[in-house]
């Protein structure tokens, strides 16, 4: 397990303890604090455990260190498993309802006596929940909306969860004897924001015997993260992992590998027009091969890679992220596909938090972590004063923070730059949480909505449009406010927002946090086509959060972004010039 997974497990224990009747509040806080402590650790947690370096870390006592060591070495915590086993299933199911926390779940469970989400839905429809202490009709309606959201996203997992699970098994399998090629396929390879399952394709030598295939399948199905085996054969095996996500492994001869990989990468929407193109050229394509049809006979067209398949169809290679039937077939045939942005194109990070507001690390620590990752600048954006829950800064705080940044910039001169910024709250009427004089003193401003999510769409849209029109707003942060699998975005006319951002030269970020990935890739291309610069921002609240940039790259590539479309592919001087010029124009 990596740090994020361990921290998430500790947070889940805290939630499960809250759901447990008679739990000790001090124990709950201990796990919450431990999760934050783990998330802020620098270095690979497995190495820290092996070297015994967790001892003395604030927030980590002997019991918690043992739990963390157990998680790292066995990939689970027995105490967590015990809590899950002893928690009524309906309580666990209710945790998936947006906005419904453990305390309210306990109250519903105790006083309404529901044993399933279906019973909870009926209780809401019968108006039983509204009369509970501290609830009311609005809360009941929100629970009904949340139940509908849960139903729509059942059996889905964040991309980051699927990626971690798939990579763990891929890394183990690739070292096994007989493996020629191995690749994760499916929606993970296409970098969809959520996934239902994991597909993996493995090739062996065409002449390999059954013993090789059986040994690989035995190894796959006996991995520590496998909870159950749902199917096992020489060509395909299926398992359920400890996280609940299903995984399939297909083993083929190496000559079949590119066809099988292409087929199981998908998407279905991409394959349908591709097959039509093949048929128009008297070809047919499936997971066994690409075939030329003549006089009722099929002849295999040899392909060593997926690129060969597309070339045989007189197309440029289509990157997996683009295979969604959004125009990529026609563009590939016209040799008009963009050269997609890569993580190596990024020069710096914007939208970073520190201990001045709700971050877990100092400005220096965040800057040094960026330097270690090869970045040349960092845009600091601690919260504004309205965000009191996040220790938001007042104008005087910003001035003092600016003085610290000046000192650090002198120290880092020539090798790294810190930009002075803020993540400024957009108020209900669309004005900002700082006055223009304060905003003008900063290098750049990210403006975000953190409150009043339930305004009518027209009002919410006007709120956003007014913020975009402010001359000091350089970037709109996490534009819809969605939390993937957690809550839908607030109602917003994104087409209007994109039009306004293009008119005012305002950037719209891709928030790279794996629970956000907001702006959605479906709108990223619309923004690109309007000429909007789109920064990829980690919204990092701890050192490990900086590494979320790679998730944002996935969204950018799905949105057809080139390096020139991404704001923070600019070097420091070009970035500062960009901010200066756009403000001067306004």
Protein described:
This protein is α/β, with parallel strands linked by helices. It folds into four domains: 3-147, DNA polymerase beta, N-terminal domain-like (DNA polymerase, domain 1); 155-264, Beta Polymerase, domain 2; 266-335, DNA polymerase, thumb domain (Beta Polymerase, domain 3, 2-Layer Sandwich); 344-585, TIM Barrel (Alpha-Beta Barrel). It is built from 24 helices and 19 strands. The strands form six sheets. Strands 2-4-7-6-5 form a five-stranded mixed beta sheet, sandwiched between helices. α19 links the parallel β14 (423-425) and β15 (446-448).
Mean pLDDT level: 94
Strand order of the largest sheet: 2-4-7-6-5
Second CATH tier, the architecture of the largest domain: Alpha-Beta Barrel
The fold-level CATH name of the largest domain is TIM Barrel
Taking pLDDT < 50 over at least 5 consecutive residues as the criterion, the unreliable ranges are none
Largest sheet: 5 strands, mixed
CATH C-level class of the largest domain is Alpha Beta
Overall tally of domains: 4
Count the DSSP helices: 24
Number of strands: 19
Q: Assign the structural class, choosing from mainly alpha, mainly beta, alpha/beta, alpha+beta, or little secondary structure.
A: alpha/beta
Percent of residues in helices: 40-55%
